[in-house]
Amino acid sequence: MRLKPHVLYFIIPTLIALLTGGFFLLSFPKDQIHLYINSHHAPFADFFFKYWTHLGEGWLFALAIPLALWKSWRAGFQLAITGLFTLLFSGIFKNWLYARQPRPIEFFKNIADLRLIEGVNMAHWNSFPSGHTTAAFAFWFALALVVKKRGLSLVFFCIAFLVGYSRMYLSQHFLLDVVAGAGLGILAASISYVISTKLTQSFWQTPILKKLF
Questions:
Q1: How many CB atoms lie within 10 A of CB 116?
Q2: pTM (2 decimals)?
Q3: CATH fold of 54-212
Q4: What is the per-residue pLDDT across 63-91, written as a single tens digit (0 to 9) for each?
Q5: In angstroms, rounded to a whole number, what is the distance separating the alpha carbons of residues 170 and 189?
């Protein structure tokens, strides 16, 4: 995929985040990393991440695809297949290749008491990778490719990044799960972009209203 200037505003900070995460994973055990993150809390952060984490859920695709179709058929198609690849990747890894991997609350049972956020429904299994992080990076990167604005690309990265961090803050996932999820999300959006680009015709670029009326 040929990288255009606006794409770099998402890709470069993502690479920095992945490399930083990889460095910590190579330097420290995943349980030690998680306990460190879990020990740093604040009331505002509890409230913020409890709700921000929902910006990595599948309803975003369901909402955005119809809206994207009003921009062009290609934009809607690109977001749709990004959603499909996201489901495919998450399903293969979480439910097949790495099924039954314990999440933090299960991993630390009888080992350490995690600080949990009231009102958050905790999951115990299928930890790897983080599905919310996969969906967040897939969706917000795909949106950056559709919108094509440098400033918004950076904003979209920040949204996805904070979703990833929220999964660790809420003790739903380990850093390894989040790093893998971010990588899979970027992969899903990139493959979808290449596919939609190969199918590009003048038809793709025409707003849906001009086709119908």
A1: 14
A2: 0.91
A3: Vanadium-containing Chloroperoxidase; domain 1 (1.20.144)
A4: 999 988 887 888 899 999 999 999 999 99
A5: 26
